[in-house]
Specification:
Blueprint: H1 2-95
Amino acid sequence: MIFLIIAVNLLITLLNIYIAIRIWQLRILIARITSILINYESYFSILLPVAPQVIYQGQENIAQIRQKYQLWQLQTAQLRQLFWLVNQSYQICRKI
């Protein structure tokens, strides 16, 4: 009978040790996650205030690129017309 009590107490002790180890591992995991989240929070607290300026600058750059592209398209169309005119003039001169 006493061996049964000792065996049960030993099993309860081993179970408690196992639970304590798992809780300790969970505590370490939570500490790591907390550290990562704190790092992200500090990074984003620096990044987010300047985000509107960066977005606005990007919008301005895109608008400038669109204007340059439209100008390039116009110049390309004018060059095509010029080449067409030169070609037509050459064709007329060849016929004469």
